Please model this.
Amino acid sequence: MEKQLPLKELHVAAGARFGPFAGYDMPITYPLGVMKEHLHTRASAGLFDISHMSHIEVRGPQAADLVSHVCPYDASAQPMMTGRYTYMLNENAGMIDDLIVSRLGEERFLVVANGACADKDLEHLQKASAAFEADVAHVPRVFLALQGPKAAEVLADLTPSSGTLVFMQVTELDDGTFLSRSGYTGEDGFEIGLSLDKAEHFAAQLASNPNVEWIGLGARDSLRIEAGLPLYGQDMDEETDPATAGLIWAIPRELRSGGGFVGAAALSKLLADGVSRKRIGLRPQGRAPVRGGSVLFAGEAPDAPEIGIVTSGGFGPSCGFPVAIGRIDKSAGSAGDQIFADVRGKRHACSIEKLPFVEHNYFRGG
Model:
């Protein structure tokens, strides 16, 4: 049986249609519908309940050392009150999960983990913590995302201090609320972690703003694909290394040839040998989307060689055409080239595109 979100009744009242995701019964769409929800987020402010994601606090004198051991970066050098995109690797350099790690103090970090990975992430961190003077604990919270060009204006009405943040800066309010200027849509916005007793009132206040609409997982997926943002379990997993996933940029160059983090030796060897596949954007011809799992081929002929796979795909409402993310053999093509996806036994022409499909609109100040 799927877990229930703390604010489920709020979503029921808003007319949400639910479905299973990451072990939870999640709002997939609301009466507005996926297309309009997507476009509303790009034009105004969309409100998402992302409470399936898990908050894990790492605290103690060696908290930075523990984070640097499980993630491939130097956490001791991370500026205070900033978030960082990273991941945890296994010994083979496969991706256990991708994460946002925020530094809240000299000896305190917050790890935001994907919902489907929450239990294994917590176990991995707790097991690793045995070798460090650091404690690891789950923090029960409601987690909301407010995304879009009017998100800052909307949130400023409730929390005026939010306007001082720029992209990937975080803060904690006096009541313990966690606030990060970040998101998963390519738009400016915030992610807000709230105690269970404060969340319903705060969410209702946000939702009552005329610029805000509740947005479900359907539009969240199309927004993140347009923005070229990966989804754990589709675009990466424990069999996928960061280079093949197109995420090697998150590891500092000096650590790519070795370091003290889990998976460092395997990653160094892999990079020295050279990865065999690369991440690409795909634009299918016509208006029919190509979904994740579709096999990619070099040509239309039945004997054309197989060259890769679509990892995520759907229709891009902002683009006006289908969009997809895939992985292909490193020498199989580059931007502008045509390849073919197998769609129900038929070859469907696609052009290779640079990611993202829509420009990121993160607020960096100025």
The domain at 52-138+241-274 is CATH 3.30.70.1400 (Alpha-Beta Plaits).
